[in-house]
Amino acid sequence: MTIAPLLRAIAACSALALLPAAQAAEPVRIGLIAPFSGSFADYGKQMEGGVKAYQKLHGDTVAGRKVQVIMKDTTGPAPDVAKRLAQELVVRDKVDMLAGFGLTPEALAVAPVAEQAKKAMVIFNAASSIITTKSNYIARVSMTLPQISAPMATWAVRNNVRKVVTLVADYAPGIDAETAFKTNFIGGGGQVIESIRVPLRNPEFAPFIQRIKDAKPEAVFLFLPAGEQGVAFMKGFRERGLAEAGIRVIATGDLTDDHVLPAMGDATLGVITSFHYSMAHDSRENKAFLKAFADANPGAGRPNFMAVAAFDGMNAIYEALKKTGGATDGDKVIGAMKGMKIMSPRGPITIDPVTRDVVQTVYIRKVEKVNGELYNVEFDKFADVKDSGK
Ligand code: PHB
User: Which residues in 58-190 belong to E strands, given as ranges?
Assistant: First the structure.
């Protein structure tokens, strides 16, 4: 071995040591944890699409530092995998913050990692109420199930829906949705004649749909995690003739998420949902978002609420880094996010300074055809809604 490469290496090291600027130029590393494969693969893809749309519009540098997003696939729902990935991201990849989280059990598994490592953890979807109480380093820019479900109940009683069956996925967000819906619906004079909970993994809907039909409610209130499950439910609902039996569907907007809505077909026409984002939301910010998403993600199809939350989450991170002058210390980043107001494609949102949870308008929407395509058309709203589940 000649001495030259060694000398060169030593020279390179000492040059780096003399350059404090080299450290300031280190990228900000964000570890994005979500399912990118398996039956919830869309969650990761939507979030990635939202991140790309944000960086398409705002670049990949903020406060003088490049922003690098490292995506990790949980294959979920897999809380153990999510936790291991978070630990690897912190220890090996030296990430400055954690983000993503499509599913509540994965967010809950990672919360102690963020707490211990003192890293900001920004939730792009996971929506059971309790998550933000699990670490002071967590901020949420998406929604919570109580926040969305309570207005649906209020709207239903005001509009003469009196007798309902509830059906939810049997895990924390589903229980949150059921509880918040029942509280407001029964409180408003309505009657819940049956409450059905279905497994999170691979539910077989046929027997549950028959139970709904037999109970003869005026409507079924539904929370199912976005994606394939809603498609399967609506297929069974149509095949068993529930609409013909006079049963309406009211649901959280996870059911008719913009990405899967075209595949659900005309059986969804007239379905009423409550939610924080619709692709059909009429605003300048939403138009800019839809264009950036399409430009940055050719062939990806429609963006949904998870893409929007990822877009807004990146916005919150960039704005926080501007305030901290590029410092990524967890206390400083979360401190900068407390009370932050963001003009989202969905409308204005605030990160509550005390709970670090999102405060926003909840819209009531109806599935309609616009120019021959299915959309969730907003027709009523509840302003400044906080999470009511804590
Ligand atoms: C969640 O697990 O928190 C979750 C997943 C999908 C949704 C909403 C909430 O559509």
Answer: 61-62, 65-73, 97-100, 120-123, 138-140, 163-169
